[in-house]
Amino acid sequence: MILELAVLDVKLHQTEEFEAAFRDAQRIIRASRGYLSHELQRCVEKPNRYLLLVRWRRLEDHTEGFRKSEPYQRWKALLHHFYDPFPVVEHYVAVNSTPCE
Amino acid sequence: MILELAVLDVKLHQTEEFEAAFRDAQRIIRASRGYLSHELQRCVEKPNRYLLLVRWRRLEDHTEGFRKSEPYQRWKALLHHFYDPFPVVEHYVAVNSTPCE
């Protein structure tokens, strides 16, 4: 399993519109092959900052499957204009560090 | 519920030691009042970067309860010397954007 992380800095005074657009856009990502779950979180210290966490079955489900899909064009159109600067996206893999669980 | 996020850049060639120290240190955070869960994830694009996500019941459980506790001194001693630069920690709250779930 892969965790996608994006810290999203939304243009000032556009956070309500962004949240509304995200409500629509999340249907697109949910329908993508290999999507497992996502969460959108809002920063306490900087209220125009959001955190998007998406869990994918495999890295390629995001980088190839989702990003090269037709519905991704709609995702981009809905969301990308809100970001300043444009976010850096990273991928993470869980560290097997909890043998006592 | 509050999500604590810290991106941890570990000094090069110290990642194995860091993971071993974290295996020990996680017992400290688990025992803290208001702690709900945590995960340590390793970056695919930058292998000496880690992501620590901790879920707390309330913000103060982290900022006051954990950070001002006696066991936090042990957490610091175990982990803080691995980081360069020292991480910025942020807190997030879930956006209620999934009414269809």
Quickly list its features:
alpha+beta; globular; homodimer; 101 residues; 3 helices; Alpha-Beta Plaits; four-stranded antiparallel beta sheet
Give a short synopsis of this structure:
Chain A is of the alpha+beta class and about 100 residues long.
Radius of gyration of chain A: 14 Å
Poorly predicted sequence stretches spanning 5 or more consecutive residues of chain A: none
Largest sheet of chain A: 4 strands, antiparallel
Describe the strand arrangement of the main beta sheet of chain A, using strand numbers.
2-3-1-4
How many discrete structural domains of chain A? 1
* Oligomeric state of shown chains: homodimer
The best one-word shape of chain A is: globular
The N- to C-terminal Cα distance of chain A equals 18 Å
Q: What name does the CATH topology of chain A carry?
A: Alpha-Beta Plaits
Strand content of chain A: 25-35%
Q: What's the CATH architecture name of chain A?
A: 2-Layer Sandwich
Number of strands of chain A: 4
**Helical content of chain A (DSSP H or I, runs of 4+):** 25-40%
**Average pLDDT taken over every residue of chain A:** 94
Q: Which two chains have the most extensive interface, and how many residues on each?
A: A-B, 31 and 31 residues
